[in-house]
Design goal:
This protein is of the alpha+beta class. The protein has one domain: Sandwich (Immunoglobulin-like), CATH 2.60.40.10. Strands 1, 4, 7, 8 and 9 form a five-stranded mixed beta sheet that branches. It is built from two helices and nine strands; from the N terminus they run αβββββαββββ. The chain is elongated, with a radius of gyration of 26 Å. A hairpin with a 2-residue loop joins strand 2 and strand 3.
Length: about 160
């Protein structure tokens, strides 16, 4: 009689352990916050001729309101920076937590005017909208955002 009870308890225990292992291996139950892959790319061109501009410095920034010791201010973080290539193209790829406000600023400045002419600096708003998401942030991987942001610069 004791052997039958122990045998049944052993089976129940094995079933419980197997269930716990199966549930813990399910990747849809991950705990924590996943990062999002952002890919922001585009082309820098002359606003009149539409020709590509090489060597334009591009800086992507994000602003956050902060309060410290009762004083409110704006913190600006540089997210990514780089240069346009010979075809005027650039590509920023970075992994980060998705911000609450999906608006970035892209600053374009001509730092080598002798090589490519001379262009006025320009700041462009990069707004991430729902159709820019390849996968939603609720995905296990944290999602992926792709945005094309072209920049046209005016010659000085």
């Amino acid at each position: 009689m004791k052997k039958k009870i122990l045998l049944h308890l052993s089976k129940v225990f094995t079933l419980i352990v197997a269930s716990v292992i199966f549930i813990s291996c399910n990747t849809n139950n991950e705990i924590g916050t996943s990062n999002t892959m952002f890919v922001i790319s585009g082309t820098v061109t002359d606003s009149v001729s539409s020709l590509p501009i090489n060597g334009i410095k591009l800086v992507l920034t994000k602003s956050y309101p902060i309060t410290s010791a009762g004083i409110s201010s704006i913190k600006i973080d540089t997210v990514f920076k780089g240069f346009s290539d010979a075809l005027g193209t650039y590509k920023f790829q970075f992994l980060t937590l998705p911000p609450n406000d999906m608006t970035f600023k892209l600053n374009a400045s001509d730092i080598d005017a002798a090589n490519n002419g001379s262009y006025n600096d320009r700041e462009v708003t990069v707004l991430i909208e729902s159709f820019n998401w390849d996968r939603k942030a609720s995905d296990v991987s944290g999602g992926r955002v792709t945005k094309t942001q072209n920049v046209k610069l005016l010659s000085k």
